[in-house]
Amino acid sequence: MRTLISTAFVSLDGVMEAPGGESGYRNAGWTFKDVEFLPEAFELKGQEQKDAAAMLLGRASYEAFSPVWPGMAEFGEYKELPKYVVSTTLAEDALVSDWGPTTILRSLDDVAALKETEGGPVIVHGSIALNHALSDAGLIDRYHLLVFPLLLGAGKRLFSSADLDARKLELVDHAVYANGVQKQVFDVVRGA
Question: Domain holding 109: CATH number?
Fold first, then answer.
């Protein structure tokens, strides 16, 4: 069984929208313009690339990343990694050809079936709506969070507002950096 890992940049108040500067959000680019850059605070991202065996994305994140990431050296480890895009609307002919093998999954049942296959961790980048659906369905096994010392107020959040039973998380790794960024790695506790 594969581990499904949600990785996110998140503000202290839970916003994960437009951390890299995507247009349309008032505070776009908040990870770079509002907090001092320290390479050690981002080591988790490099480790994720080395450890991931596949990437899972929602349609909007795929459409945002696929024209840019294939040519970026800092995402080189992801180039040939198998990618899975969860979408009911994305057409096969909309997939880019220079970013490794890509499969469209049409439902959360398809994601659950992917988790049952052999192989290493599957990592979810961005994909706010997908994160909500995966979490609500109990499909996420681990969270890799870089929490920034910012309150952004309005914005799309990592966790949905669905009325669910409490879920216990176990902190398995953490660090605090001089710029105030906190690394928080949580495993989802099953059967609790």
Answer: 3.40.430.10
